[in-house]
Amino acid sequence: MWYSVVASFSLLGLFLHVVEFTKGGITSGFVRSINYSLDMPLNSDVFRAPPGYNAPQQVHITQGDHEGRGVIVSWVTPDLPGSNTVLYWVERSENKKYAEGIVLTYKYSRYTSGYIHHCKITNLEFDTTYYYQLGLGAGYSSRTFTFTTPPSPGPDVPYTFGLMGDLGQTFDSNRTLTHYQKNPAKGQTLLFVGDLSYADDYPFHDNTRWDTWGRFTERSVAYQPWIWTAGNHELDFAPDLGEHKPFVPYTSRYHVPFEASGSTSPLWYSIKRASAYIIVLSSYSAYGKYTPQYEWLENEWPKVNRTQTPWLVVLMHSPLYNSYVHHYMEGETMRVMYEPWFVEHKVDVVFAGHVHAYERSERISNIAYNITNGICDPVRDESAPIYITIGDGGNIEGLATEMTEPQPSYSAYREASFGHGILDIKNRTHAFFSWHRNEDGYAVVADSKWLLNRYWKPSEVSPVASI
Length: 467
Ligand SMILES: [Fe+2]
Known about the structure:
- It is built from six helices and 26 strands.
- It has helices spanning 2-23, 171-182, 208-221, 248-253, 292-300, 332-344, and strands spanning 26-27, 57-63, 71-77, 85-90, 97-100, 102-104, 107-108, 111-112, 115-121, 129-134, 143-148, 159-164, 189-192, 226-228, 269-273, 276-280, 311-315, 349-352, 358-361, 364-365, 379-380, 386-390, 411-415, 419-425, 430-437, 447-452.
- Fe (ii) ion binds next to loops.
- Pfam families: Metallophos, Metallophos_C, Pur_ac_phosph_N.
- Keywords: Glycoprotein, Hydrolase, Iron, Metal-binding, Signal, Zinc.
- Its cofactor is Fe cation; Zn(2+).
């Protein structure tokens, strides 16, 4: 009896799902404040420099190799270059090691940066908590932080990623970061889908707003790696200011392990982390056939071993599927180039930002069109990724509230609220994605979807999936 009721509901759910697809998914009726906040003032506590002479500030870490045994530690010293050394040790161990880094500065329009340090630590133990200390040397102020390395890559290693994009430095940005940090799902590494500081919204792209952003985010990114993707606000391309070379502030401040994946540019690269293989792409670099990014990505697919890292995740800034009016179809040319690969290689999920709102797609593709066949609408495709737009970090430009109507069939759920996401990988077959809006309590899930691994569990029909 109970079984038949469940079966009936499952069938009804399946039916409704199909009907839903034909008319489009859910546009959330959640009523939010239409006001958005300005950037936090320069004297805000979140921007305060640490005490002490030449104390390291804007401390941030990211993965430093391809496997997860490396960490790049970056920081800024304001007064003098100071030391490039990182002292690090395993929790409760007396055996301390040193790693030596580099220091650089850059100029941008009227601005000259502080001393930006980057130090790569390699050959760390997997799944281990380390302490690390910066600002060594007599007369300087040192600071100590911790991080935990991921488990060795493996098919059933649970791991929890946070998702954030288009963060900026408003009061809403601060709420987003706090919600992420207090989410009981506990993200272990953050996947950041581009548009960091929004310094370029200021006259002369006031780069002191890169510094404030570095100090604001330190409370998370000094303790867990953020995996960086470049957005349009990282371009800082301003010929009128004499700045002809794009990405100078971003690439000076945020180093990534691109060479470890055979990339020739920090704007596209890949890493393995626990049970995930993560490919980072650049929406604002050439991606057509024969370009360096295209050739690198073409060579990347055979390297993905789904037996070792079952979860194949792609990050980019400009979404390939977006039903908001803002930035509508801006990702279309990259979709034409790369979507067939995403389907062929069974990418599980593609995360993007750029649109200041949240949206989750159905599992669809649109790769049949060949200029004469007229087949140009997205269709359900079990080999295709789900596309999630998570550009709702809360920056100074506010929410993208205007949506295309009616909601297209590829769009499963959309809502213009600030928030963050969590990708909670359970094992090789199941991962739980959840989206959390800032207006809710820290534990509240506003939208969610069980993801069934495209390689190990290609069918959507699953008892767990219907929970
Ligand atoms: Fe953007």
